[in-house]
Description:
Blueprint lengths: L1 E2 L21 E3 L6 E6 L8 E9 L13 E8 L2 E5 L2 E5 L4 E4 L5 E3 L7 E8 L1 H7 L13 E4 L6 H12 E2 L3 H21 L11 H12 L7 H8 L3 H12 L3 H19 L4 H8 L4 H12 L3 H8 L9
Antiparallel strand pairs: 1-12, 2-3, 3-4, 4-10, 5-8, 5-10, 6-7, 6-9, 8-11
Helix pairs in contact: 1-3, 2-3, 4-7, 5-6, 7-8, 7-10, 8-9
Amino acid sequence: MHDLQVSPDTGQIDPRARAFAAAPALTRPRYLRAGFAADVHDLAGSGLLHAGEQWAPHRFMIDDHDHPTWEFYLQLHGVTRWRADNRTWTVRPGDLLGVAPDTVHAMAEHPGANIHFTYAAFDPARSLERQPELRPLWTVPEPVVHLRDAARLVDPFAQLINEVTTAQQQLGTGLSLALDRIVLELTRRLVRSGPVRTIGCHPAVQEVQHLLDREYAHNWPLRTLAARVGLAPNYLAALFSAELGRGPHEYQTDRKLNRARQLLTTSDLTITAIAIEVGFSSGQHLARTFRRSIGLSPSEFRATSQSAPGSDLP
């Protein structure tokens, strides 16, 4: 796979990436701290019009606009307030905001702090055609959907961003599968009547696991986790290890490393910025943990991921 590098000087994608004719056009608006916007234009009938992942400064604003398809914003860090459908919506980390076609929406105010979010505009009807068993369940009566604690959508969005930012074979199929996964998780949330239970998982372990999945970048001492679920720290650690094969600290570290790998592959953030983003104290801390777990430094992993076998397209 080849990472599609965005030029910080011109805001355009690296000309070498244009050798891959099917690759989406990536740009970086000059007001961003990092990230990109990608115009996809329904590549290979996937239904995706555009997508992006952006790290924006505290004075960032998105003005009134609409789209011919649904657009979904997944907030990863920071808090934003939006105007849509004559209401104001506060979107916190882990929340998802969806806006129906032709619905005008905009940020209601500057966020006041740096923010990080991913977004995608696509036609869910294409996924429902590919996955007809979901069609009867897809009912969205309101022009705006606000889902709190949408942590289960983080990985599907990360999969979509990976497809958008790498030129590889079967790109259209990859985009379609990523969108179908997003629509599947959206459908599950829209029809869900209660909390998701993991079969055979102790409720306390499940609560801690979901917390670490959602807020992996936060510092979570074992005693704090134990207090949240009403268990003794040693008992929680033993129970968590028995059910998931590793303790809470190791589980959280794995989540951090997984996210670091994604960012090393799909973004041009510096190693230090990625370290802070995923919850390590410094670039050196990330590098030590990364090498101990994966056997490569973050820089070596990034270089390897950009020249992986099978990346040469015909």
